[in-house]
Input
Amino acid sequence: MPDLTILVPVYNEEESVIPLLDEIISVVGKDPTKVEILFVNDGSSDRTEELLKGSQKRCPALRVITFAQNAGQSAAMACGFHQAGGRYIVVLDGDGQNDPADIPRIVELLDQYEVVCGIRENRRDSWSRRWASRFANWVHQKLLGDSIVDIGCSLKGFHREPVQGLYFFNGIHRFLPILLERNGCSVKQIEVNHRPRQRGKSKYSNLGRALITWQDVLAVRWMLKRKLNYKIKES
Output
């Protein structure tokens, strides 16, 4: 099994998946003994699956898992985490805004930390999306008491075993570093490159994401407050 899995959840990204795959290959190669490139196709209705499967002959490291129907980003990530063969897992979005060139630095830091979180430097999004992101970060830091600077940045690295041990629910993908840190994992945050979306369309609206994230923050807050905390006394 390879030491590294690159996990990319995708939904209706037919314009982006091949350019992104080519970038990933240029950074980590395509030797299946060294790396696993795992795309989880979240029930796309376009040519995403066809294009990815058509690339498997030229890229032996590429695995494609396709859902029968759209289940959401958290489900795609949960599936990818449990299917991953690598000891380390690096996750990035399928829209091309995360830069695969940051992967080697994240992998290097995973030798020292169990979680590595990206902080989007010079975000290339609209002002309304940047504002919504700042507000979301302020809300979760106030309610959860965490220190994660950019909870919405998808570019993250994990050790496989701790992340596989989490209980997954819809919306968890935004809170993985917080939950893992509360479970005792070491977390490192680094600035990463952020690029404008060149192809395809965003699957989220600011209002829709804000409403969902608010509910998720309250759910995670409840989980953290109810988390069991005990220590066995030494005899």
In short: DSSP finds eight helices and seven strands in the chain. The radius of gyration is 18 Å. The mean pLDDT is 88. The domain at 4-125+150-200 is CATH 3.90.550.10 (Spore Coat Polysaccharide Biosynthesis Protein SpsA; Chain A).
